[in-house]
Write a structure and sequence with these properties.
Distance between the termini: 25 Å
Shape: elongated
Largest sheet: 12 strands, mixed
Helix content: 40-55%
Radius of gyration: 32 Å
Mean pLDDT: 77
Order of helices and strands: HHEHHEEHEEEEEEEHHHHHHEHEHHHHH
Oligomer: single chain
Number of strands: 12
Length: 465
């Protein structure tokens, strides 16, 4: 029987290939939707594992997480620098690390932070060491630079109109081990360097910092200098700037930095000194404003208390990244349901079209079926031949579709990882076996319809026709 089926498929190889291709494309669509949604959830969850609590200024919790964890440029309002001092002195906090944004090197974001964050969120160095002076930098594992390279930062991306900081350069002293997060594509420098590059420092704080650090020379510096103590007014201005700036990526990729080296003298802040030793301790009133602080609580209970305390004041916002991602996953799930419905509709249409084609084909092969019966083939054999032939076509299409869907998802995930900096794991889950089994049962049922029609055909009538 199998030899007869294979010979028949070879005789109709072009039609068989078209049927297999249609089935494969329909299955690949549904497979890609399912695998890609799962890969995005798993990848983003793993990328945020080391970030327990994030504290920032009041605003969008989602944007705070996207900017702090996934390093997506956006205009974030600033919170008082004294928040960092309070967190580092809080007995409920194991460690707290500031982060500041705004500059880029060869398209890679420059992140101002401390050695504490590097020690606590990475496994170590692939080569080199941590920065020990203001003019030194550490690069992520995916940054295409080398130890000893001199880096000239630009405020904003050059492709989007960013300008280079005159007379400012960092020297690469170390490369981190891979972390599987967007920070693999970041250049880490001391937070004091970011402050000094943008004209901020111990002498510039309170209301002045919030305006100068978030908006700079083009955001009414003179008015900000005259507004001592008006933190609330500065914060409102930061929100307005974040909502209305058309070039958010180039302006507030700042996240706690600022534009305009022209402000240095007017602020009387320390100038950038590449040989200056690190200073990672701050007293009240010394630290400039910050867009975000990454916090490691000592316990789960402490985490919830800190989150509550830094939400209650109204001056800051504290969020769990996992909490924000859960909301994003809910929206992603809604989109997945729509796409799955589209994929199921496409598969249904393909199945109906193929069923129609195979029924017509059985009708056109009545003489062949009648001849088989005339030569003594039982009804069951005819049923088996037709069913097996169609089952092979459907089965081949399903397996090919699963392979195409997996390959498409893998390609999309690699492209995403290259662009965003963190991998998306692509794999079939045990629950997928149920869907695969239902698909196979459906294919077997569809194959039985033409086979049943062939089974019922009387041989004499088929030969007379």
């Amino acid at each position: 029987m199998i030899h007869f089926v294979l010979a028949d498929l070879k005789r109709f190889r072009l039609g068989s290939a078209v049927i297999v291709l249609l089935i494969a494309l329909a299955v690949a669509l549904g497979t890609t939707v399912t695998l890609q949604e799962r890969a995005l959830r798993l990848g983003s969850a793993r990328a945020s594992e080391k970030f327990d609590l994030i504290v920032g200024a009041p605003g969008s919790a989602t944007q705070l997480v996207l900017s702090s964890v996934f390093l997506q440029p956006a205009a974030l309002p600033l919170m008082p620098g004294d928040t960092l001092v309070a967190l580092t002195e809080d007995p409920r906090v194991a460690w707290a690390a500031p982060i500041g944004f705004g500059d880029f090197v060869a398209g890679y974001p420059v992140i101002g932070t401390t050695t504490t964050l590097i020690e606590m969120t990475t496994t170590g160095f692939a080569e080199g060491r941590a920065f020990a002076a203001e003019g030194e930098a550490v690069i992520g594992s995916a940054v295409d630079l080398a130890l000893g390279d001199t880096l000239v930062p630009t405020h904003g991306k050059q492709a989007e109109g960013g300008h280079a900081h005159a007379g400012i350069a960092y020297r690469v002293t170390g490369r981190l081990d891979p972390t599987g997060t967007p920070w693999d594509r970041a250049v880490l420098v001391p937070i004091q360097a970011v402050w000094h590059v943008h004209g901020l420092g111990h002498e510039a704080h309170d209301g002045h910092d919030h305006e100068a650090e978030g908006h700079g020379a083009e955001a009414h510096d003179e008015e900000a200098h005259d507004a001592d103590g008006h933190d609330e007014e500065d914060l409102d201005h930061a929100h307005a700037h974040a909502a209305g700036e058309d070039h958010a990526e180039s302006h507030a990729e700042n996240h706690g930095d600022d534009h305009g080296e022209a402000d240095h003298d007017s602020h009387d802040a320390p100038a950038f000194d590449p040989d200056a030793p690190l200073d990672e301790t701050w007293a009240a009133g010394e630290a400039p404003g910050l867009p975000a602080i990454l916090v490691k609580p000592r316990s789960i209970a402490d985490a919830y208390r800190l989150r509550q305390d830094y939400r209650a004041t109204g001056d800051t916002l504290a969020v769990f990244p996992a909490e924000v991602l859960t909301g994003l996953y809910a929206m992603l799930g809604d989109a997945k349901r729509v796409l799955v419905a589209v994929a199921v509709g496409a598969q249904t249409l393909v199945a109906a079209a193929l069923l129609l084609v195979t029924v017509i084909q059985v009708g056109q092969r009545r003489r062949q079926i009648g001849a088989l019966r005339a030569f003594g083939a039982p009804r069951g054999a005819v049923f088996g031949i037709v069913w097996l032939e169609l089952a092979l076509l459907f089965g081949t299409g399903i397996l090919l579709g699963l392979g195409l869907g997996f390959a498409a998802t893998e390609g999309l995930s690699r492209a995403f990882a290259a662009e965003r900096g963190f991998p998306l794991p692509v794999a079939f889950a045990p629950g997928d076996l149920l869907g695969f089994g239902l698909l196979v049962l459906g294919a077997a049922g569809l194959s039985a319809v033409p086979a049943w029609l062939a089974y019922r055909q009387p041989p004499a009538a088929a030969l007379r026709d």
